[in-house]
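We treat protein structure as text, and this decision shapes the records that our systems exchange. The remainder of this section carries one protein's record, kept here as part of the documentation:
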Amino acid sequence: MIAVNSILCLSLLWIVYHVVLLDVQVDCDVHVLLRGDMGFSRDYLTSFRNSSHCSGKFISVLEEHGICRPIGPNRGTRAGAQVKNRTHKISTVISDRSSTPAPSGQQGANHVNFAPLPKYDLPVFLNVNARSLTKKLDELDIVLSQNQVDICAVTESWLNDTVPEDPVSINGYKFLRNDRVNRVGGGVGVYVNLKIPYKEWTDLEDPNFETKWITLRPHKLPREYPNLLVGIIYHPTTQHRLMTDHIIKSVDHILSHHPLCGIVLLGDFNQLPDNYIALQYKLKQVVTKPTRENATLDKIFTNMGTLFREPLVLPKLGTSDHSMVLMKPYVPNSFNTGKNHCYN
């Protein structure tokens, strides 16, 4: 029954189309048109689906008899001018981003490295065996300025209680010292940038050991290191066990007050066995090149190796027989302004 009705409807479409096209006035009952006296193939009737011959009058007749639905204004048409000109507001965030390229194997059109660039105030360290500081003070002043050094560890200062503070002062720094007692030579000291808050641990000084201990508290440090522990060490003797015990005792004492310190031990260690100290505090010795002839005597131990660049071995200071060692953080700090220079 459904098939018969479909055939009758298609027959009506064909008749109505020809009535309109030929402008023939046919006055007949719709029921006569639906009798099915004429037969048409499926292909023939469906050929009118997209025909350009279908006039508007023909379409209106089909709509009048409920054979087709009116075509809406937006149905089957492309977006208008209003849609094309529509703007979309996209929220954006402007911040510092790392320009580091993608790791090998991850580069691609859709790969972007959005790792934020950290801004820490980590000091620039210089390790110097001076062999008489007073004779090389002017040259050291230039080195500190050109390399924007914040912490300068000095070994073999050759100072004593007869040398006042002024002859060894450098503008912009505080010089903290521990002179050798009852013997010539030796002695240690440290120049601290006046912009860095520090604490001097004088209670750890022992006349039998040439060391100096300070803690630093720059305003911007990595969260895991709220303080920096800095030890300047000069070990000229063969009393290795005693010096090792003194270093461990001093570090433990400071860590009991500041348990999460970033640690930097630097100076002239000579032949001191350092494996035990490194393992005790998970430190790494980061100086990889010789500093006196073919030996690496002027060392730097730290548990913050990932935050610093590989140390540079610089030329000797004046007539000293030791090369200087410069260690800079990956990110420049805010203690100094201007460009960094390398002393040569």
Summary: The mean pLDDT is 80. The CA atoms of residues 236 and 270 lie 7 Å apart. The chain has eight helices and twelve strands. The chain has two domains: 2-71, 125-327.
